[in-house]
Amino acid sequence: MVSKFHSSLSEALSLMLNDSDDHDVIIQVGENQNIKEFRAHSNILKARSPYFKGAFSAGWISKKDNIIEFRKPNINPTVFEMILKYIYTGEVDLTKAPGENILGLLVASDELLLEELLSHVQGYLIENQSTWIEKNFVLVLHTVFKLASCKKLQDHCLESICDDPQPFITSKDFPSLDKDILYGLLKRDDLNIEEIVAWDYLIKWGIQQTPGLGSRNNNRTKWNNKNYEALKKTLNKFIPLIRFTAISSADFFDKVRPYKAVIPYHIYEEAMEFYMKDTMPKTTTLPPRVGRSQIESNLIKPKLTRIIAGWIERKNGNNLSLNKKYKFDLLYRGSQDGINYSTCRNKCNNQGPCLVLVKHQQSSEIYGGYNPLGFMYCGNQWRNTSESFIFSFETGEDIKNMKISRVNSNYYNCAIYECNSYGFSFGNNLYMNSNSNIYFSNTGYYDDNVDNVLNPYQYTNFWPEEIEVFKITTS
Q: What domains does the chain contain, in order, with CATH numbers?
């Protein structure tokens, strides 16, 4: 048996880093007013980084008094300090680091060929910095699309945008989005956006990208033929990606027709033939867009459906690559159908797998449950499944503080309770009673996290502000 003492080794190397009297490398990082020198040991750097191994072995490095002098102006000093700590000790602490530095660490890890660190940072950004990523989508996209090793983060960004494009396209940075990234987004069938909205923001992007237009010349009524030709050149490869048949005739007349001059003649004529004669286009035949997780909910944003779909596939967190596309069709909404257990039951029975969402009147928290069997008329009966779960979100758009409780493996036969006088029941942990109130309790039929899911209304009942039930279909 081999005994390992990694902690003491890490501590010793940390001391070498902090008190590097015997260093043989000076690395100057940063630029302008943000420059710092670090002292290190070439053997350790070469052992840990293929980049340094190659760089220090090359003939172009400079030495002064047998000390290697090396410059990395493209790496922030704070970021390089984290890299050195990782190289010497195998430790990195990102909990208090701002998103910009974490992204910088990702780029530096790629450049210095630190694969283990790159993988960790990429995962950390996805799991713990999703909110920051959403606020800085353009910066993140422009950064990671230059790094072939960051496909996981690329996919995460694109899927997040496809699930809920509105915050992205309305952001102040959207007009500066790289044309190849925009092309890739508009090409996707799972971009969950109304086609007229896609058109509107494509025009806005094109105006900002076109020389002679932009914010100083965005009033088309003042444009000349040269302006229209310039915009047409900018949008030339994007126009065929617009599904004109998914745009209403009124929107086409009001919002598309004024830009007739920028649309290729054959595309415009086929669109007109569709609106006038109901003849499908022959050359522009892209199918209507179908989002990966479509939902029209008053309680949760579309991006939360990816979390729920991941739970259905037994995947947790935000780093989700779904195996299927999910569609959520509204069956019942209390505010429009009336909050009544009987109405809920009548509208939701025999519809297949269902998602239930509930909101308390005095809380922003959203509670819910997944019934993979569907609701049905079958009297007072317990139904068996291993796939049901209940959950809560802190708000209708929070993707960080979600909680889930799956049916206890010892009580699969008590996962769903069917009762004609209940609207729904998840093992009598979360249920709508005959008085149409929502009840929370811990019967032991769901796992130990059930108390966290139902907090702070455990063992209470309340009249819900809203209830929504959706039928779930996949493709």
A: 6-151 (3.30.710.10), 162-277 (1.25.40), 294-474 (no CATH)
